[in-house]
Amino acid sequence: MRDDLFNNDSDIADFRFDDTVVAVFDDMVRRSVPGYEAMIQMVGLLVRTYGQDNTNFYDLGTSTGAITLALALNNKSKNNKFIAVDNSQEMVKQCKENLISKIDNLAVICSDINDINIENASIVVLNLTLQFIEVEKRSALINRIYQGLNQGGILIVSEKIHFDNQQKQNSLTKLHMDFKRANGYSELEISKKRQSLENIMITESKDVHLERLKASGFKDSNCYFQCLNFVSFLSVK
User: Fold this and answer.
1) What are the angstrom distances between the C-alpha of 121 and each of 34, 58, 152, 234?
2) Fewer C-beta neighbours within 10 Å, C or N terminus of the chain?
3) What CATH number does residue 140 fall under?
């Protein structure tokens, strides 16, 4: 279904992953996030290299399940369990409908990812998720993921970032707005969605992300993908 949630004159409320967003989410994210399909494709490539037999693969903040499906379709390891977690009941319902007939050994869980016990993991993915977690809780979450990863396991984090250099920030923001316009969003829709997300999606710089990953114990972290102001980090334990 096409995303037209903000194409009206209704009052602006904080963004929520409710049934109205779920219905248009796949269209929304592809028209709003530059390089989104490439993010998913790269996760598929990485699981082929870093997946381990007899381990768990976690998709934290799964939304409608695109990352979980990429993990499963590209997996070359044996005896793995796929664990998809989201705190939106509506998202969890849609994820189950999308994946239940496509993936064996699947668990779709409705929970705050801060309450999930990460264990025996070789792959953990936070795809456009950390930016919706309270800033003061982010380090603890990354620490728990690190502790739950097996040696040689990986954490993949994809995020919208901001830049400390104001000129660069303004330039990339303009390009991002142009990307949305090219995908059919009106000025009204762009403005209203930005205001709706303002209080719940808190971005950070690339350096802050890399410093947090290092502080959690990851010895090898790098930004392996960037499209405008969206990046993906790979951290290996």
Assistant:
1) 29, 7, 10, 15
2) N
3) 3.40.50.150
